[in-house]
Amino acid sequence: MFLSRSLHKPFSATASSSSSSVSSMASHHLHHQNGDSTITTTHSPPSKKLKATPITPSELLAEFSHHHPSTARINNGSFGSCPASIIAAQRKYQLQYLQQPDDFYFNRLKPYILKTRSIIKDLINADHVDEISVVDNATTAAAIVLQHITWSFFESKFNKGDTAVMLHYAYGAVKKSVQAYVTRAGGEVIEVKLPFPLKSNDEIITEFKKALEKGKSNGRKIRLAVIDHVTSMPCVVIPVKELVKICRDEGVDRIFVDAAHAIGCAEVDMQDIGADFYTSNLHKWFFCPPSVAFLYSRKTDKIADLHHPVVSHEYGNGLAVESAWIGTRDYSAQLVLPEVMDFLSRFEGGIDGIRKRNHERVVEMGEMLAAVWGTHLGSPPKMCASLAMVGMPACLGISSDSDALKLRTHLRDCFGIEVPIYYRAPNDGEFNPITGYARISHQVYNTTEDYYKFRDAVNKLVNDAFTCALLSD
User: Fold this and answer.
1) Residue 287: closest CA among 364, 371, 358
2) Is 348:14 a contact under the CB 8 Å cutoff?
3) Pair 3, 10: CB distance under 8 Å
4) CA-wise closest residue to 30 among 93, 111, 109
5) Residues of the chain with CATH 3.40.640.10
């Protein structure tokens, strides 16, 4: 269901509830072999699944009533949003731990995480649950993969000067991680320079092939390709399947897909994509509380030696088991996925239906804003997922990253609008170019009025002859 007080009718759901609450598991015990360690899993007896009750408009409002009431929150992409019922489920897990920490650690935590991993395995069409590890976020997953690459350099499996290729659009923290790990180990990092705005996938593929050719120059080998699935800023859906195939054809050793936004926002299928590693956050577009992500590692002998960068008692028992215990901390965000699946079952088409409608609505709202402001989208609709880049009026005078951040703060503080702004440097010879793009998101809690509020705020700034030069640091 999507709330809209003026343009669209809400939708309802008829799907079945997908899994019973993990917190109710309390009957007989089964043993599961997981890597080198045996864990005891607690299951409830089989029970008849009840048909999910379609969520009503009032129930949907209640699920997100903790959102700031006067803020148009069109930035789901940054931090996601967690429904009230999932927050309540998380609190139950937290209390289970606080009531009896020893019992929780020895008898409950591993089975709960195994349940989460099993759900993820089915969601992404992986071959086996052993390919799924649960981690804090996509940045942690990147550290795991890059640590593995670094050791390959140190152990002389890779040669000094061998290369890693990544997109210029790559997330800032991941770009820095690649530099920190690969360059310090003796490798060279090559960025794929992409234009913006983008007109088609062909532009991405062409530039990617150029970077691979550069990476192989002078007899070097490309040891790692880091490919985004849905880039962060500017946001665009990358033709990940095509790029992975190109990497295979060119003999790239390891392929890591950083898909922080993807699960719940784009179609995710490990058999179809074919990467060695794939990570996505569950707290961005999959309604989990922050922070939780998965790392998929395709089972091959070549990439078997993976370890969590935080070494704890489970070291050597396989990445999935290592990741399930990295010390005393709050693991509750990693345990609520069964309840999230129940929540999703109340929407028509489940997560696939939500994803489809989010895409349609964000494109519709983006095109509405672009038409009013006389601008354009940053990419064709098919490359937008549940986010879209919308050009802002050139007269706002966005001339730097600092201007973009100050304008974002101004919109938040003075108009109650939360939306990221991207600065795009003008090309030589451009006349009156669009240098600022808003990254708008759409999630089930958004209303048409959220985007009208943004439209009207920008129109007021334009009518008042506002420019970013008027904003102080």
Assistant:
1) 358
2) yes
3) yes
4) 111
5) 113-338
23-to-94, 95, 109, 391 alpha-carbon distances in Å: 11, 11, 11, 47
Tokens of 162: 């061998």
Which pair of tokens denotes residue 70?
């006067």
Q: Given pLDDT bands bounded at 50, 70 and 90, which one contains residue 472?
A: confident
pLDDT at residue number 8: 42
pTM of the model: 0.88
* The CATH number of domain 350-470, selected from 3.90.1150.10, 3.40.50.10420, 3.30.420.10, 3.40.1180.10: 3.90.1150.10
Provide the 10 A C-beta neighbour count for residue 428: 4
Say if CB 4 and CB 10 are below 8 A apart.
Answer: yes
Do 162 and 220 contact (CB within 8 A), yes or no? yes
Helix (H, G, I), strand (E, B) or coil at 132: strand
CATH of 113-338, one of 3.90.550.10, 3.20.20.140, 3.40.640.10, 1.10.10.410: 3.40.640.10
Q: Which helix (H) or strand (E) holds 269?
A: none
Diameter of the chain measured on Cα atoms:
72
Number of H helices, E strands in the chain: 15, 14
Contacts of 17 (CB under 8 A, 6+ apart): 49, 50, 51, 52, 342, 345
> Beta partners for 143?
none
Q: What is the rounded CA–CA span in Å between residue 315 and residue 37?
A: 11
CA angle 438, 442, 448 (to 5 degrees): 90
Domain with CATH 3.90.1150.10 in the chain: 350-470
Percent with pLDDT over 90 in the chain: 84
> Contact, 368 vs 449, CB < 8 A?
no
DSSP labels for 201-213? HHHHHHHHHHHHH
Say which residue the tokens 């999935």 belong to.
320
Give me the helices (H) in 309-436, please: 319-324, 337-344, 350-373, 401-415
More confident residue, 368 or 11: 368
Report d(CA 169, CA 306) in Å as an integer: 26
337-344 and 109-123 are packed helices; what angle lies between their axes, rounded to 10 degrees? 40
Tell me the average pLDDT across 167-186.
91
Q: Which amino acid is at 146?
A: L
Residue type, 19: S
Supply the pLDDT for residue 366. Answer: 98
- Cα 82 from Cα 2, distance rounded (Å): 15
Mean pLDDT of 118-126: 98
